[in-house]
Write a structure and sequence with these properties.
This protein is α/β, with parallel strands linked by helices. It is built from 10 helices and 12 strands. β1 and β2 form a beta hairpin. Bound molecules: iron/sulfur cluster (SF4).
Length: 322
Amino acid sequence: MSAQPLLTVKDLRKHFPIRGGLFGRPVGSVKAVDGVSFSIERGETLGLVGESGCGKSTTGMMVLRLLEASGGEIWFDGQDVTKYNKRELRQFRRHAQIIFQDPYASLNPRMAVGDIIAEPMMLHNLAKGAERTKRVAELMQMVGLNKYYADRYPHEFSGGQRQRIGIARALAVQPKLIVCDEPVSALDVSIQSQILNLLVELQEQMGLTYLFIAHGLNVVKHISDRIGVMYLGKMVEMADGDELITNPLHPYTKTLLSAIPIPKPGAVKNRIILQGDVPSPANPPSGCRFHTRCPQCQEVCKVEEPEFRKIGSRFIACHLVE
Ligand code: SF4
């Protein structure tokens, strides 16, 4: 591995303005992502988890500059992505791709699968004519699809097969980084593991780096080297995947972990049920953002925001963890 991480994100923020009044002036903001920092080494998978609305997908979109950040830095291969001009951004798009959650909505229903996979190569001028057709066949085989299906349309495939098409399209430009935005959430459990295994195999073959976004730890634990847990726009804990799963320290991580069913008949699990709803990111709680639902909340938590700091080999934001 190179000494320099492939991706480094520093204090990333996305605040959506709330407009009101007669003239639609900004009257506040939704802090969807509010100061998130992490890095990903080459060939590594960082899992990003949290409930819906915690800002994980917004983070993924900002990393790829599909959504402009309100603040912070994004360094890719030693360069600040937020400073890229149009030409540089185009090149960057070749190196950083995305796999979407809904494989059907992300594929053009009027295009044959071969054309869908070939399109990024065309856009980036990577292969032409017979060479492009050959490459499409290779990519289809690589993701476990029959190359003779290249003339078929997305609706002729199952959900799992459509996600394989999405993966082949992302691989077509030989990217370094892939943001996997809940790539298995819409699939049956039996198909989920096939797609996860495929992503692991492709990573080994091609040295890919993944930012893998999911709402549950049960999915990310299978694929991630490290895991970051987000709550209401903030990172609350980040650690080696095995360490986080076997010894979660942040009360919110413990809650997420308690939601994973034990695959054993008769096994009983002490599930932690959180009280109340997720607060609005337009008006996040004072102090620790998790304090309104935390079973271990103390007085200090209500007034003082815990710093996201390194403790041992992990990063964590909680007053109770020393
Ligand atoms: Fe809970 Fe306090 Fe830790 Fe926040 S800082 S997670 S409220 S114990």
